[in-house]
């Protein structure tokens, strides 16, 4: 929005409205003195809760005079904005930050920061409460409006969350080589095909956007639009989650099928194997490759992507492995019924993963990530118990996160004859 210098200048000349917010930036030494964190957070959240707009920092909102930001303080202001959108507003707001030069009234070019704030998939709370934008001002939401907005932007909508449009995206947000996997052999107009497959969709204004599923499967960085759409993997020496004993860690980004493969690579790198000779060498892995593969696929395929900023956490300890997957159990599924019932939260994502072939590393006899046979949880239980003699444990934390614990196999006993 307002991408060219001329277009932005013209808009500033006309003044604030539903699509434009102007703020002068004041400094006290090496700190931003104004606007305050709370005030700026309220403005940004109000815009994200409404229809999206552009915030320009470095312009007086009353006189519309371009004051500018000192070049040596641009990093400071940009960090200030990112801190507010990430830490002060809940859930975090995804924005795009650009540096531009605009001429002041004397013709001298001044640096400003332009912040594109798209309409959000979520409802955001800032320090002052829940706000929406009305014209050039923000207003606190009345209870009935807030309830309506939550309903519109929640999974309770008729449209599944994975099929909703992602604000700020467009068809070219999705990578052609990743899209090709899902449209091979299909004749006709590509855009029409992608719309039929729900990889693209139309927003409320009829503009074509990437769908949530399309973004997750066909972009290199879905977390730029859906904070938390990645895996946090950490391996520890010992049994405690203590950074002093951290031996390996990785944030795993990318399309969902790539995340699965990279998580398996991380796992194999940290699945220490014991061995002994009796008389030939026998390896004793701590965890089952098959069980862990199924567990990671299940976490990726069935997590709740509507929970902003909540990531999959994958922890490896010496005595166990833990996978935390965001979201409560879907529909009427219970912990006790996990091994016996098949209920899918993300039908489209599951379907797309079933079309993705597995590259190495994989599981013998498995060609696709999802095979829709409902065998995932039974396999996890069977293969893990066979190795460690302990049944894996599922637990629901605060009705908002599913924890799977897989226990490690015991170290083999080494007798004198084995040495």
From TrEMBL:
Domain Schlafen AlbA-2, by residue range, is: 16-141
Please give the name of this protein: Transcriptional regulator
The protein's organism comes out as: Methanospirillum stamsii
Q: Pfam families given for it? A: HATPase_c_4, SLFN_AlbA_2
- The organism's superkingdom is given as Archaea
Q: What is the lineage of its organism?
A: Archaea, Methanobacteriati, Methanobacteriota, Stenosarchaea group, Methanomicrobia
